[in-house]
Amino acid sequence: MGGRVSTVRVQERVREHVARGAPVRIVGRGGWLDGGRPVDDFEPLSLADDRAIVEYVAGDLTLTARAGTTLSDIAAATGAEGQWLALDPFGSRNGTLGATIATGSAGPLAHAFGTPRDTVLGLEVVTGGGEIVRAGGRVVKNVAGFDLTRLFTGAWGTLAVITEATVRLRARPERDETVALLVPADGALGDWLARLRILPFTPLALEMVNSPLSATLGLEPAALLLARLGGNDDAVRAQRQLLGALGDMRDVPASVWSTLATAEPNGASVARVSAPPSRLHAIWPVLSRIDAGSLAHATVGRGVVRSICAPSDDGNGQRWLAAIGTCEGTHIFERLPARAWRTIPCRVDDPISRAVRTAFDPARILNRGILGEVA
What is the pLDDT of residues 146-185, one digit of tens each? Predict the structure, then answer.
């Protein structure tokens, strides 16, 4: 199954559900079904078998693939040409392109390359009304207009089913190395981060990890800055010299990034707190030491901290929620126990969100509840 045929089949399924008034749960490979607010166990619409690279133009650094294509499939195809899709969401590399775009998921590489909204050039979708829509295109430059591509990206499947996507690729650097530096004490953190932000180069990734997470990654149990450096020999050598001026530096294996991507324990609660990068020094001390076992990491250039609370029956979940609530910044909960969602206000129940939902999914059949109901 692939291409136009599979899109029409998705369209037929959606129209059947509209006719019956029956909600549908959109599924890729099923690895992120506990993300977002709880969705009732509706009939699934799986895209896992719709897995194909439709077009790969290496000279243009663009690739078009069906939604069920895995990130590992794309890595294998582009790696042969010295290119890569610079999206590294947390979780297995068996996650699908469609799910990555639908959830707007990004990892440490967002420091240099941005989020899916900066990478996706075009989408084909089936709306909740059963219409096939193409947004954007298959080239880097497109005609200006209302940006439906960015609207559907990160909508968690509440507006449309993503069936195909065109993404921007990047050339792989000649050298790709990772080093670690100790994160200074709280009182010196602000100045240290300010020096990092004005470095005359942009690392591929710049991620702080707290002590429990460092130990989980097989590194020394201390708060560390992981810096991923890329470029030719001269560029990487210069980057290492500049970073070395900020503290003692040691090499760490490149595998640390894949280990970080899968470090969350099963059943963990996860929150993301965002603030201006200049305020990272204020939120990091709070979120990195909520509990002795809580994990935390921060994308320095974006001012985003992810806090991870392992499942437990000893009340640490309540302490974790309370600490998140006292922290400045914008709070987004990625994963929570079902009972905890009832205490978290819905942030999408506003007139604009309701109007957009009505325009693309008037019967409210797609992933109902995942962002909170917008009746």
Answer: 689 999 999 999 999 999 999 999 999 999 999 999 999 9
| DSSP string of 180-216, one letter each residue | EEEPPPHHHHHHHHHHHHT-SS--SEEEEE-HHHHHH
Q: Using alpha carbons only, what angle is made at residue 352 by residues 346 and 356, rounded to the nearest 5 degrees?
A: 100
Give me the pLDDT at residue 69, please. Answer: 97
Of 3.40.50.150, 3.40.462.10, 3.20.20.70, 3.30.420.40, which CATH number belongs to 175-339?
3.40.462.10
Q: How far apart are CA 8 and CA 99, in angstroms?
A: 19
Exposure string of 297-312, with b = 16+ CB inside 10 Å and e = fewer, is bbbbbbbbbbbbbbee
pLDDT of residue 140: 53
pTM confidence score = 0.92
Output the pLDDT for position 143. Answer: 47
Longest dimension (CA), the chain: 65
Q: Are 343 and 321 in contact (CB under 8 A)?
A: yes
The predicted structure's pLDDT at residue 253: 97
What CATH code is assigned to 3-171? 3.30.465.10
Domain boundaries, the chain: 3-171, 175-339
CA dihedral 257, 263, 101, 354 (to 10 degrees): -140
Which residues does the chain have with pLDDT short of 70? 1-5, 41, 138-146, 312-316, 373-375
